[in-house]
Amino acid sequence: MKQESLEILNKKLDSLIEAISRLGPATIEPTDISAADCFVWSAEKGLLEPVAKVNRVEIELIRGVDRVRDILLDNTQRFADGLPANNALLWGARGMGKSSLVKAVHATINHTRKQTPLKLIEIHREDIDTLPRLMAILKASEYRFILFCDDLSFDHDDTSYKSLKAALEGGVEGRPENVIFFATSNRRHLLPRDMIDNERSTAINPSEAVEEKVSLSDRFGLWLGFHKCSQDEYLDMIDGYVRHHELKIDPEELRRDALEWSTTRGSRSGRVAWQFVQDLAGRLGQPLKASA
């Protein structure tokens, strides 16, 4: 009887241990960095999730930003080759291809690269405070990484920008030599103007308070400005898309429809041009080519 009670107790203990183990965090397998060229950082899981199909356009289709395109491509190529390179902040008008350019530059370099491929990792804005943890994972790797944050900006009560400052240049360890950080933003200093103005008006030492806020953007050695495009640049973008996708339409009709589209949208940009081309292809009943 005593032996039977002991066996029942042991079974209950085993069941309890199994139940408790299910409540704990699951064992995380290390990411196979060779599995893909692009990843998304999952801060909650603490791992890199591979992206099989990257949403991007070919670099020759990004028009109206030739100067900044060449600068970013040269900077990234130097980084891929193990040479000194700068963190880059792509800022300015929305819809002008900032994030598209980052992804296109990465693809262009890997297309011509015979050595170890360059890896692109996207980190979401809300996970910026986990950047030091991600860098600690990457620094021991044989690969070189572009960390990319799209639409990066900080609001009034957000202090995570301090974590970003330390991770980029200001920490004890600094940025690992196999990691570079690219960000896009509509704001040159990443912080709202009224936040900077408020610091200036309420601080005991206004200049020091403002320096604290704007010094984040100083961590980016490259400031690449994107500005609203002209009508000719807008039409050139559309012409490039139409030729690439081999859409059959009369040039005069194309120009008229493209200008009408931008007028109804109230703006001209690369994004507006691409939206027009998608609408045009649908109306013509012609498919668009898949991205490479």
List keywords for this structure.
12% strand; 292 residues; seven-stranded mixed sheet; Rossmann fold; globular; alpha/beta
Can you describe this structure?
The protein has 292 residues and is α/β, with parallel strands linked by helices. It folds into 2 domains: 33-226, P-loop containing nucleotide triphosphate hydrolases (Rossmann fold, 3-Layer(aba) Sandwich), CATH 3.40.50; 231-284. The chain has helices at 2-23, 66-80, 98-112, 131-138, 161-170, 193-202, 206-214, 231-245, 251-265, 270-284; strands spanning 38-42, 47-50, 88-92, 119-122, 145-149, 179-185, 222-226. The protein has a 7-stranded mixed beta sheet with strand order 2-1-4-5-6-3-7. Helix 8 (231-245) crosses helix 10 (270-284). Helix 5 links the parallel strand 5 (145-149) and strand 6.
Topology:
Elements: H1 2-23, E1 38-42, E2 47-50, H2 66-80, E3 88-92, H3 98-112, E4 119-122, H4 131-138, E5 145-149, H5 161-170, E6 179-185, H6 193-202, H7 206-214, E7 222-226, H8 231-245, H9 251-265, H10 270-284
Parallel strand pairs: 1-4, 3-6, 3-7, 4-5, 5-6
Antiparallel strand pairs: 1-2
Helix pairs in contact: 2-3, 6-7, 8-10
What portion of residues belong to β-strands? Answer: 5-15%
Treating each run of at least 4 consecutive H or I residues as one helix, how many helices?
Answer: 10
CATH class division of the largest domain:
Alpha Beta
**How would you classify the helix and strand content by structural class?**
alpha/beta
Q: Give the proportion of residues in helices.
A: 40-55%
Radius of gyration: 25 Å
Distance between the termini: 73 Å
CATH topology of the largest domain: Rossmann fold
- Write down the secondary-structure element order: HEEHEHEHEHEHHEHHH
Main beta sheet: strand number and arrangement? 7 strands, mixed
Number-wise, the strands total 7
Strand order of the largest sheet: 2-1-4-5-6-3-7
Q: Which oligomeric state applies?
A: single chain
By CATH, the superfamily of the largest domain comes out as P-loop containing nucleotide triphosphate hydrolases
